[in-house]
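Researcher: Go.
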Amino acid sequence: MALASLRRRLSISLALAVTVLSLLFTVFTYFGVRHVEVTQRETSTLRQAYVNATLIRNAILSGSPALETVLDSLDSGTNASNMIYAHRAWIVSKLSSNHDKVPVDVQISATQGHVARRIFISNGEPVLAIGIPIPAINAIYFQLDHVSDLNRSLNLTLLVLSAAVGATILIGLLGGLVISRRITTPFARTAKTARDIAEGDFTQRITTGINNLEVKTLADSFNQMVDHLVERIERDARFSSDVSHELRSPLTTLATTIAIMQKDREALSVSSREALDLLSADVATFQILVEDLLEMAGNEAQGYFKEDVQLEMLLNQCLRSATARLHLATIPIIHETNVSSILVSVDRRRFERVITNLLDNARRYGGGAVAIRVRSSHNDVTIDVDDAGAGIGAEERQRVFERFYRGHAAHQRGAVRGTGLGLSLVAEHVQHFGGHVEILQSPEGGCRVRIVLPVLDEEALL
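Model: Structure:
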C-alpha cells in the first residue's frame, strides 16, 4: 500500500476541518438570523394588528362612518391587506387582496376566539396571515402582510454567508498548505540528513536555529546521536587499523621465514613439508585478512573520493591491473551494448578493488572468470562477471555478502583459502557508488556476479 505524504494529509485534514467548521457556522448563523428576523417580524406585525383591531373596535362603537373607510385609513404598512369578517360578510379595504387568500385554518382558529397567525406562500411569495377576534363588535379582523422583503433579506444573508464559507475554505486550504509545510519541513530536513549520513557523509547535521522547542529538542538529540555514532565508528576504525598495522610486521616476518624455508623444503620430511604448506596457506590467508580489515577501516575512517569517469576506460584499466596482480590470463570484456560514452561516479581505487576481488573469488572457487559482460540502459549500466564453476545455491546467494561468511566450503580446510570478506567489500563499495550487487546463474551454468551502477547524465554535467 502506498504511503501518503504527511504534508498532504495535514493539508487535507486542516482544509476539511475548516470546511466543516465553516459550514456548521454558516448553518447555525443562517438559521439563527432567520429565527430572529422572522420572530421580530411576526411580533411587530402582530403588535400592529392589535392596534388596528383596537382602532376598528373603537371606531364602530363610537359610530364612525363605514368600515371600508376605517380600513383604508389603517396604518398597517404598504404591503398589508386589511379585512373584517362580521355578520357573515367580508368587508375589505380598497387596497386589500381577496379574502379568499386567508388560510382556512387561520379563519377557523379566529372564529373559535383564538388569535391565529401563520406564514404561507401565495403566488410564490411568503405572506404572514393574522386573525384577531373582536368580541365587542362580534367581528374578526384579518391582516395579510407580504414579507417578501424579509425573504430577500434572508436570501442575501445566505448568499453572503456562502461567499464567506467559500473564502474561508480557500483561506483554510492555503493556510493548511503553509502550516503543513512549516510542520513537515523539519522532518523532511531530518530525513534528508539521515539519508546523507546513511550514505556515508558523517559531516551532515540538522541545523538547530529553530524556534520550535520540540523540533529543536529533536534536532539536538539527533545530532548528539550522530556525534556518538561517528565517535564510535572512528574508534572502532582506529582499533581495526591499529590491530591490522600491528599484525603486519609479524606477518611479514612469518612470510619471509616461510619463503626461506620453502627454499630448503626438499631437506624436510614429508610431514614437515605438508605442515609447511598448510602454514604457508594460512599465513597467506592471514595476510589477505589483514589487508581486507585495513580496507574496511579505511572505508569507515576516510570515506570515498568519487569522481566522474568513463566506464569503458576504467574497466579496461582495472582488468589489466587485476590480471597482472593475480597472475591471470586475459579475460575478455564483451560489450553487449555501446558503452563508450557511459559515465559513472566511483572511487577509482575501490572500483579496482571490486574487480580484483571478483576475479580472485572466481579463481579460488569458480574455476576462474570466463568473461565480463557489459550493457547499458537508460538509467544504469550492468557489469556481469561469469566464472566456470558450478554456481552458488539460491539459499546462499544473499549470505555470501555477509562478513566472514564462506558457505559450505568453509568446512573443507584444505580447499578454502579465503577470508569471507571479499564479497562483503564488493557489496559495500558498490553500495557507496549508488548501485547494488547480486548473485545469479550464468547461462553456462557457473556463477554470475552482477553489478548495477547508475549512469550519469552527460547533459547535467555541462
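Model: The longest strand covers residues 125-134.
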